[in-house]
Write a structure and sequence with these properties.
globular; 5-stranded mixed β-sheet; alpha+beta
Amino acid sequence: MADQTAGTAGEGDVAASKSGQTSNSVQKPKAQKAAQKKTDAPKQGAGKKKMEGAALIGIDVAKEDDFSEWYQQVILKGGMIEFSDVPGCYIFLEETMNIWENIRTFFTTRIAAMGVKSCYFPMFITEDALNREKEHLEGFAAEVAWVDRGGKTKLQKPLAIRPTSETAMYDYYSKRIRSHRDLPLKLNQWNNVVRWEFKHPQPFLRSREFLWQEGHTAHLRKAQAEEEVMQILDHYAAIYEDLLAVPMVKGRKTKNEQFAGADYTTTVEGFIPATGRGIQGGTSHCLGQNFAKMFNIVVEDPDAERKEGQQSEKVHVWQNSWGFTTRSIGVMVMIHSDNKGLVLPPRISETQVIIVPVGITAKTTPEAEKQLYKEIDALVEVLKDAQVWGERVRVQVDDGKESPGYKFNKWELKGCPLRLEFGPKDSEKHQVTYSRRDKPGEKGTIQISELEAQIPEILQTVQKELLAKASEEYASHRKTITSWSEFVPALNAKNVCIIPHCLEGDCEDQIKELSKGNVEGQEVDEKAPSMGAKSLCIPFEQDVYKGLTVGETKCLNPQCEKKAEKWVMFGRSY
């Protein structure tokens, strides 16, 4: 399923262990918090530079100076997450869960129209079930968390906490699917999964436990399965582009990078400009008949000729699996947010419009203040009647006792897309003053009589321009490379590279080794990632790149003698 690493220990009466680590080694709260800070916090050296003029409650490290520290401040101070006592596991706060619920509603509506039904399977998997498909297990074996006791009783056989659910679900599929009339079977579940990753955790992107949806379907024919694979991939791209305003490149994974046990894997690939790294956004796999053969999921072929006295021909079903995770939220934050805090696209922001009362001073009489708030209440009612994306505009009034300046900083930090200011002077002119979060420092005015029409238009413009800006930046960092001498310098300049490639796994491994580090004599940002480049995808849109003739053009790898088969996007990645 999707390439997200995660995991957590069991809670309550169940203690989890991994690779011999039992519940006796579980830390006490103080030690856990210390370990969490040590494990989760980015490395901070004497070079950490605080921004001049940073708001007291705001971000004090610039995105361009220390991306890791900036990112952590943005999601913590913006109210997205909080640390837990379990290293590598995070508390998802209200704004995060609101975004995830928006994604869930958007996606569920679309897959329901495809005939996909909801289900839920247990989070525990027996060792026997997990071991039924060795090739599949290899991709997760090092990350599987095991439960070896319940309360004080040691279990006869340890139970795995699901890293993904193919093996858990397909035993049931083999029992349910008895005839071609039982097909297609299309089930999806929203759940958490655990992958006991020991690398440096990063909220949303790399954690031991994360939320996702995983769809598992079975079909009579290959063509039906392949059609669904592409439908799901289009839905994943729509989540990013229509909801999160994040551009994606759609493509197919190489054999080296595809899901273990799949015939092939399709993917949407994103890009983080600040670090120059690619990031996998979501994957849709055609599993072929691999799992069907392992779990003996067979039906009679209704189209096969049946001779008298003979049984109908049996065929294995064709299966797909597809997954989308909370990693998507981290991608959105990294791309749009700035040195003032979160920048949230209006479609997924819990509060789309915040109204801040201004101009109330010590000289303002109680009657005048009461009248001002009465007028603000009327503004709220007007906006609640406004419609955007088929829903009412989500509006809130900040009537706290803090100063307007404090409130401005607070809502900028939280990423609210649109701020309206209303005070006595605005009342006199029958207007409101507005500020877009994505355009810091710019202000405009709207006549109150135009509010219901103009606010939805502004929100739609913000959404559209966030995507346009990110798309332009992504496009400018996709470099078509036809000479090896340009490959590593392009990576070091924080780009991903589209190269002619032979599609051989050994060649990919060589490129990864050859592209580590920096080119001698080249000045490179010391914070630039120095790991080797791997293949991100084979873009579906091949015709936009010029200069590859199959059978003639050589693979870009200087140590490879084979001819190139496709343009392949390579990059350093998360």
